[in-house]
Amino acid sequence: MPGWQKVYEELKDQNFELISVAQDTGGEAAAGQWFDRANPTFTQIIDENHVISTTYNMTNVPTGVWIDEEGMIVRPNETAYTRNTKLNLNGKILKSRGADYVAALKDWVKNGKDSPYVLTPEEIAKRVQPRTDEQALAEAEFQLGNYFLSKDNDEKANLHWEAAQKLRPESWNYARQDWSFTPKEQGANWSKKFQASEGDYYPDTDIPELTKK
Which domains does the chain carry? Predict the structure, then answer.
């Protein structure tokens, strides 16, 4: 979050708004402390019902979406770090190109629809695919878990969360919400899932390399 505060300070007077969303069924009690510590000046939302990740079909964090002044998406879901990262975790690499992402974002803020990083509706349509039946069922299971948690039925909540993760194992958001209630086990659970997962934890963006490594 400090990295995005710096980006926001640089761009806030250029018709740019940054909205940060914390998705947590625990609400203010669980997520508010992180905003309080960071003390950001941009807009902050705590999304107890995961409405935003459901709407935009997000599966991991941090994920960013570019939306123009007319409310149109000009770049859909992408990893939204502010700096490059590359970690070797027991032989498996976790990396992201946050510096290039921010450089492209700044170009869009400056040049608007003329930025080469703005995607056409056709390009966006190729990236934003409807959920499969299995993915839709996974979302339903996840939301049922959230509902039963709100009714203090932890047992049923866990059953539905586990079903959601089995149906859509690529969703780290489902897993994180489940793990958030067993914080002592969260690190071990994450490591186990990461080592067993296929593909990149953070899919690479098609933005070209714009910054020095």
Answer: 2-81+95-127 (3.40.30.10)
Distance (Å, whole) CA 82 – CA 96: 9
- Return the DSSP state at 114: G
> What is the residue-wise DSSP string for 172-196?
HHHHHHHHTT-HHHHHHHHHHHHHH
**Residue 28, both tokens:** 């203010």
Pairing of strands 43-47, 63-67: unpaired
CA–CA gap between residue 116 and residue 18 (Å, rounded): 21
Cβ atoms of residues 24 and 53 within 8 Å: no
pLDDT tens figures, 180-199: 989 899 999 999 999 999 88
- Cβ proximity of 35 and 42 under 8 Å: no
DSSP 74: E
The mean pLDDT of 166-171, rounded to a whole number, is 96
Query: 153 CB contacts (<8 Å, ≥6 apart)?
Result: none
What's the whole-model pTM score? 0.93
For 111-154, what is each residue's pLDDT tens digit?
Answer: 999 999 999 999 999 999 899 999 999 999 999 999 999 999 99
